[in-house]
Amino acid sequence: MNMNFNQLAMIQKLKTCMEQFRMNHPKFPMFLNAVSREALIEGSVIEITVTTPEGKNYCSNIKLKQEDLELVECLKSLH
């Protein structure tokens, strides 16, 4: 698969942003590692809550299916 210059630049930008995120939030990657080792199994529920500075909450959850775990494995292989 050939990548053009714009795609390579986007990948480099993503890498830089990920490195900055890891520096800003050093405990979060450890959390994700623990979850991926111990909790990502079919039937587990992932819940995400976002609270704005004004106090407004957004919350959603998903119950993992086998197909979701296949996506997780694909994403892990990109690391």
Structural features, described:
There is one protein chain. With 79 residues, the chain is an alpha+beta fold. The protein has helices spanning 5-24, 27-38, 66-78, and strands at 45-51, 57-63. A two-stranded antiparallel ribbon has the order 1-2. The longest helix has 20 residues, at 5-24. The model has no long low-confidence stretch (mean pLDDT 91).
The sequence of SSEs as H and E is HHEEH
Give the class from helix and strand content and strand pairing.
alpha+beta
Rg is 16 Å
Uncertain spans, ≥5 residues at pLDDT below 50?
Answer: none
Termini gap: 19 Å
Number of helices: 3
- Compute the number of structural domains: 2
Strand order of the largest sheet: 1-2
Short synopsis of the structure:
With 79 residues, the protein is an alpha+beta fold. It has helices at residues 5-24, 27-38, 66-78; strands at residues 45-51, 57-63. The chain has 2 domains: 1-38; 42-79, no CATH class.
Name the descriptors.
single chain, 2 domains, 79 residues, two-stranded antiparallel sheet
SSE arrangement:
Layout: H1 5-24, H2 27-38, E1 45-51, E2 57-63, H3 66-78
Antiparallel strand pairs: 1-2
